[in-house]
Amino acid sequence: MSSILPPKAPKKEKIIKQLGFTRTDPYAWLKDDNWQEVLSNPSKLKKEIKQYLEQENNYANKIMQQTKPLQNKLFLSLKSKLADKESSPELPDGSWIYYSRFEEGKEHKSFYRKSIHDFGEQLLIDPNIQASTIDYYKIGSVSHSPNHKYFAYIEDTQGSEIWHLKIKNLETGDVLPQSISPCSGSYCFSPCSQYIFWVYRDDQGRPTAIYRHHIATSQDTLVYKEKNSGFFINIERSLSNQWIYITANNHDTSEVWIISGQHPTHAAICFKKRRTGVFYKITDWNNHFIIYTNEDNAYNFKLMRLPIPNNLIQDKIERKNWQNWINHNPDIYLMEFKAFKNYFIRLERHEVNTKIIITNTNDENEIISGDEDAYFLSLDETLEYDTEWLRYSYQSPTTPRCWNRFHIPTGKKEIIKQQKIPCGYNSSLYKSKRIWAIANDGEKIPMTLTYRKDIELNGKNPTLLYGYGSYGYAIDPVFSITALNYIEQGWIYAIAHIRGGSEKGWNWFMEGRRFNKINTFTDFICCADYLVEQNYTQPKKIVADGRSAGGMVMGYIANERPDLFAAIIAVVPFVDILNTMSDITLPLTPPEWPEWGNPLKDSKAYQYIASYSPYDNIKEQDYPAILAMGGLTDPRVTYWEPSKWIAKLRDHNISSNPLLLKINMDSGHGGAAGRYTALKEAAFIQAFAISIIKKEL
């Protein structure tokens, strides 16, 4: 037991009355009254709160001081698995080729282009220059105009996702004086390259409007206004350049508005009015609008099509004119799609793994799939519409990512780029496989395990069990140098594909949300129990890891099965669900109600959330070692969630296990922006996990 005493957060009881229920929150004061101002200016944080967070950081650093040599060893191991100088696959677009590159020793990748007619390259932007002058700097998405004259990029200088959209004239090399802000991050050029459409972020951090920005005059014209605070909005240009699509959606429902690409100043037309529970999005292909939808109980989604009318008026695009094309399959989840001039590409999922289906204009199909037990095929970015080449990637937990291009008419495959592991890597030394745990209700839960072939499966192996299980987001079985760092040391790396994700289809998501949310947590526990039952590991040899909404899983298992885990890692953990879903000032609260329920209006939702919310169910007991990490400028999972959680856990914990809080005072939800600083964060986490297993903390 360490002689270093942890900080003790003062208790300031706050009584909250809601829908006839009463609860108290002794650590509510950790939420700064001016938290919105702190997102854009961290120096505005109240002194008392800042001092407390600094005390927590100092305590965590002191406890972890003895692991410094291990941290450095793990960092160097991770770094040795990354190429110091590495370029992305080149993306051709007409007479230009676009790509990015990490230079040796640099934290951020720079963006370039080159002409197909010569060998010289043009630097588009080097983020390392700006990043060297401030504590946090990140480039988000980048895009070039269809005429290749302009280059647009969004930058974040606090980690708060308050994006600034900037435009560079590639003919003069000058960044235009107008900085479009605050931007939510979604934008696109018009096909004529005279305009850029962008999504406005309001004072509460929500995307509420779309403007058309005239590049020559800097004039902004309102194109779309979203009145429902529970809806996200984004904008994109079709690969064909024929249409601009505005999508408004929450987790249940969507609505699409379309603008002719040939007439970008025309008013947007609603394709189909939103109806609760009906989700759809569209693209254009082969003289049709292709509609991806869950309508008619197509919970795994289907594709419909509508001939594009010459005169785009409302009655010609009504639902009655839609035709079924790709029928719903209850066993196959239709994930995403791309439309080339002569080919329609879709990505489907069955029992975690994915496959690619290519359809030509005669409705003939070609299929690309993998042959490993667990793998991930993904569609890669393509800039050209009239192409016969499909770009895709293949990887698995034991196979580094390989970028390919597939010539559709001939079936010829070419490797564009193979992920390199500079320190050396031999895939034959490792094994990955799919196993199935049994849930409390009999459902089969897929798990992906990866480990060294030479370890003995004797029930004594340290195991990292990772889980997420929310929003329909799947944790795919990809190659990970972070996982490899554990595996090389004799660990088993396990992914629990629990309900709330979409690994077994959209119903897998529906069975782990709202009033079914408990399934997510119990599935994770069943996966851990199954690993013990099958003699892979044993209680107190398992380290659980969950990030963001996966942190909610971590909070639940800490309360309900502390005996099963040696340590719990919770990064930006969503652990204060009841308070967060009751706070309408937070940017994500209204959009999240379909996912969790609205405890402000629905007493059933209040009681259900209260029954599992980690912060509200802390009890006096032995807790395992816990490392919680957050970011001061995180607008998604605010810094006070992990801070309150650890403070309350310490007040109830009767074990001597360390409960650590680490708040990054210079970043937000995504953690460190640079590639090497991100590796140092990963090494810190791994050192914590390994030291706990070795009983060195």
Automatic annotation (TrEMBL):
Signal peptide: none annotated. InterPro entries: AB_hydrolase_fold (IPR029058), Pept_S9A_N (IPR023302), Peptidase_S9_cat (IPR001375), Peptidase_S9A (IPR002470), Serine_Peptidase_S9A (IPR051543). Residues 480-694 form the Peptidase S9 prolyl oligopeptidase catalytic domain. The keyword DNA-binding does not apply. Residues 7-419 form the Peptidase S9A N-terminal domain. GO terms for biological process: proteolysis. Keywords: Hydrolase, Protease, Serine protease. SUPFAM superfamilies: alpha/beta-Hydrolases, Peptidase/esterase 'gauge' domain. It comes from the Bacteria. One of its GO terms (molecular function) is serine-type endopeptidase activity. Belongs to the peptidase S9A family. PANTHER family: PROLYL ENDOPEPTIDASE-LIKE (PTHR11757:SF19), PROTEASE FAMILY S9A OLIGOPEPTIDASE (PTHR11757). This is S9 family peptidase. It comes from Commensalibacter melissae.
